[in-house]
């Protein structure tokens, strides 16, 4: 591996971004997301190279609020411009300075990884792990709440090569949810993997009853069935459920991560760089979880190109190779994603491009 390059930051560019969801938004646990707002970060180096990141906060998933991101990045601009250090030194500073602001930290962390990997001439995935994979299977999201629309979405995804379907639940009655899952399983048979995501909308008794009724439908996993603050309930469900449990929003807290690594919460970890504070902390969680026999799925928080590319490279380096990952942001956000972030045959590919593999032209920011 080439030596670590010193980063000589000359400018920190900031640009507001607004990404709209396709077809009216995406429901999560009683709320509806229609737009993702945040800040795009560009770190310019004295060498003429640059690195890109983005902070798209999502408080319901465990990040700080948007106004906190703006204030923190304005402060970061004063502290980083003219600074020089190794990436390890900068990342240690970020972990201390913005410990309670994961979206802010993620934007700066990803921009630094992108910049440093560009200076090395390697991909971010190779920077994170020398044996990083070259392609990643991704899951499609079935977000419709009725059977007909769900079947249409599922058919469209399968025809384009997706072999893993993530069905959003928790907005309708248990009978409606079960009917949707049953219809999709019946239509597409055993070769399509199905995972469920109620986004924490169920109580423990509701989850147990519903999962017991779904146990015969070969469900791969259920992500965060109970509220993220209910760690005891998630732990009980992990012990009692006939369907494998994945911890998602619960991993936004220190307590949730600790109990996951103690083997209490789930058999699968859903790791999101935006929630974990960037690639360094997310990669650490992935390694620790894998070392304890847990499987790891890397997903975005419905991010733009920089956040999605970061999650892709993390999944190539540290995600479980037998599972699909949640990286198809282009399917749900009305944004100009580059070709390398558009799945083909249900897969994304890591190309021999430096850094995150995004544009080679320096972006224009303030």
Tell me what you see in this structure:
Helix content is 38%, strand content 21%. It has helices at 66-80, 87-97, 102-120, 124-128, 147-159, 174-188, 204-214, 231-240, 254-261, 273-276, 279-291, 305-318; strands spanning 7-21, 26-28, 31-33, 35-45, 50-55, 84-85, 135-137, 140-142, 164-168, 193-197, 219-223, 245-247, 268-271, 295-298, 333-334, 347-349. The model has no long low-confidence stretch (mean pLDDT 93). It has a 7-stranded parallel β-sheet with strand order 8-9-10-11-12-13-14. Strands 1, 4, 5, 6 and 15 form a 5-stranded antiparallel β-sheet that branches. A two-stranded antiparallel sheet has the order 2-3. Strand 2 (26-28) and strand 3 form a beta hairpin. It contains 12 helices and 16 strands. The two termini are 34 Å apart. The chain folds into 2 domains: 7-121, 2-Layer Sandwich (Enolase-like, domain 1), CATH 3.30.390; 128-349, TIM Barrel, CATH 3.20.20. With 366 residues, it is α/β, with parallel strands linked by helices. Helix 2 packs antiparallel against helix 3 (102-120), helix 5 (147-159) packs parallel to helix 6 (174-188) and helix 11 runs parallel beside helix 12 (305-318). It is globular, with a radius of gyration of 20 Å.
